[in-house]
Design goal:
This protein is an alpha+beta fold. It has helices at 5-47, 49-59, 69-81, 92-105, 121-125, 146-155, 163-168, and strands at 89-90, 129-141, 175-181, 189-200, 206-208. The chain is 47% helix and 17% strand. Residues 1-31 form the signal peptide.
């Protein structure tokens, strides 16, 4: 490349980079907003389960895990009897850990909780801070709407132990982080991480009051 072409090529690369950033910015903002909406929806279900029972009854739709209406009815009954719980405190570090898994797993169409490097949810949380107490993770695929994501996880059709629902309504969890993004197979994925407490890595801030629970 001649000296004259070098600066020209550099400017073209810069211009194309700016165009790419402008094109992707709305998607990044949407993903961030959706993640915040998911946590807000979870907190609505935790703090007002009887109200959320009505939401599930009216909006659950058809389930796809094999149980159908029976799973929806069972979820509504659970919510009607559930006692309100405190809202989960959002954690920046835990959300970053969830996002790292979305960015790793989404483009390859992966499933499950174990990363390509063998990492598990608490390993990814540890990259951006320190988990305190118990921890867990929910993942949903193929849905772009916060309420639909949370309803599916609460109904938990096809999951025998209702593990996703247990995470949402666990009194052991006081802090959470979420991330959403593209998934090669299902179009979208949402990762939600839960913990008893969390110390943010950058400034050592405690995201939620620590509780004396055992580590998973």
């Amino acid at each position: 490349m001649t000296p004259w072409h070098q600066p020209c090529f550099t400017e073209i690369v810069k211009f194309l980079t700016r165009l790419l950033v402008l094109a992707l910015a709305p998607l990044a903002v949407h993903a961030s907003d959706l993640s915040e909406q998911v946590l807000a929806e979870i907190n609505l279900a935790r703090t007002a389960p009887q109200q959320y029972a009505q939401i599930v009854a009216s909006q659950a739709g058809n389930s796809h895990g094999g149980e159908g209406d029976r799973a929806v009815a069972e979820a509504v009954h659970f919510l009607q009897k559930a006692r309100p719980l405190p809202p989960l405190t959002p954690s920046t570090g835990m959300s970053r850990g969830a996002l790292s898994y979305v960015l790793e797993s989404g483009p390859t169409g992966g499933r499950g909780h174990r990363g390509a490097d063998g990492s598990l949810p608490w390993d990814r949380m540890a990259r951006f801070g320190r988990q305190i107490g118990q921890a867990g993770e929910n993942i949903d695929y193929g849905v772009h709407d916060a309420r639909a994501i949370v309803i599916r996880l609460i109904v938990d059709d096809g999951v025998r132990d209702r593990g996703h629902r247990k995470n949402i309504f666990s009194s052991s969890y006081h802090v959470a982080g979420a991330a959403t993004g593209y998934h090669a197979t299902y179009g979208a994925m949402c990762v939600i991480d839960f913990a008893g407490g969390y110390v943010e890595g950058e400034h050592g801030r405690v995201a939620a009051r620590s509780m004396p629970f055992s580590m998973l």
